Amino acid sequence: MADHRKIGEVILDLQGISLAFGGVKALTNISFNVKEHEIRAIIGPNGAGKSSMLNVINGVYRPQQGEITYRGQHRRGMNTYAAARSGIARTFQNIALFKGMSVLDNIMTGRNLKMHSNFLLQALYWGPAQKEEIAHREKVEEIIDFLEIQHIRKVPVGRLSYGLQKRVELGRALAAEPEILLLDEPMAGMNVEEKQDMSRFILDVNDQLGATIVLIEHDMGVVMDISDRVVVLDYGKKIGDGTPAEVLANQEVINAYLGGEAGVSGGKPPADGTTRPYQGEAPRTSKIGD
Ligand SMILES: Nc1ncnc2c1ncn2[C@@H]1O[C@H](COP(=O)(O)OP(=O)(O)OP(=O)(O)O)[C@@H](O)[C@H]1O
Ligand SMILES: [Mg+2]
Hints:
- This protein is α/β, with parallel strands linked by helices.
- It has helices at about 50-55, 80-85, 105-110, 120-125, 130-145, 160-175, 190-205, 220-225, 245-250, 250-260; strands at about 10-20, 25-35, 40-45, 65-70, 75, 90, 180-185, 210-215, 230-235, 235-240.
- It is globular and about 60 Å long.
- Magnesium ion binds next to helix 1.
């Protein structure tokens, strides 16, 4: 853990969030907060409500109950556009990239909200639009350097390994220069080396770019290594919240998620751990906004 980082005040606060889909209670009365510059993990078994929680934070779902306070503003639910404009970016559990487009162009789509020129100027590629395009390309090139993917910048995303596609998706989210980055299983389906790389990039995004990170991850070793605080969900309820050590020592968490033998020594994957068959893990064609 990068202990030298300055973790700030609460930037995002969720109070009493409940979300149901018909009879399915995806989230029941969940409260937790996220502090500026921290890496906050959300863990829990399949179907625990983790992705639903991210979808509430960035406005894909509007909770039936509860309140969200972001940068001091209270609201019942976010909306996706307002969330994105106010600095919340995300990656998806199933990769959401344009497979036929190059790495560079995919990351460029992450700049959309930052573009000001109108379509006509852009179509003519003239004047201010041209200047703006150059500035955006420079930003994208910075991200490409940061993520060490210069060698594949012109390659169509569909031809890349799964691990690299996940890295490109991170790049697209970074292109929005987010204040809060929501990562839904950024390491699912990766081999050990790819996971180490992704862990390092997440730490660098947090440390060097100063982004606050909310991370869903099943690999307990990774979670315990890189997160500052962990919230644990089970069947839509919060059963634990605290530092990695606190969560690992919480009996309810041990019973529900880690398996009886994990204990406080920690760092051990759960019984169903990272080798379980993730739904939708394999690269597949999907759209931005999936
Ligand atoms: N759009 C939806 N319509 C109906 N039910 C949904 C919807 N999205 C999620 N659910 C249900 O809500 C519950 C929580 O799902 P969610 O995807 O948030 O879990 P998760 O913790 O992310 O699981 P996983 O580890 O498998 O990704 C599940 O029972 C799921 O079937
Ligand atoms: Mg999920």
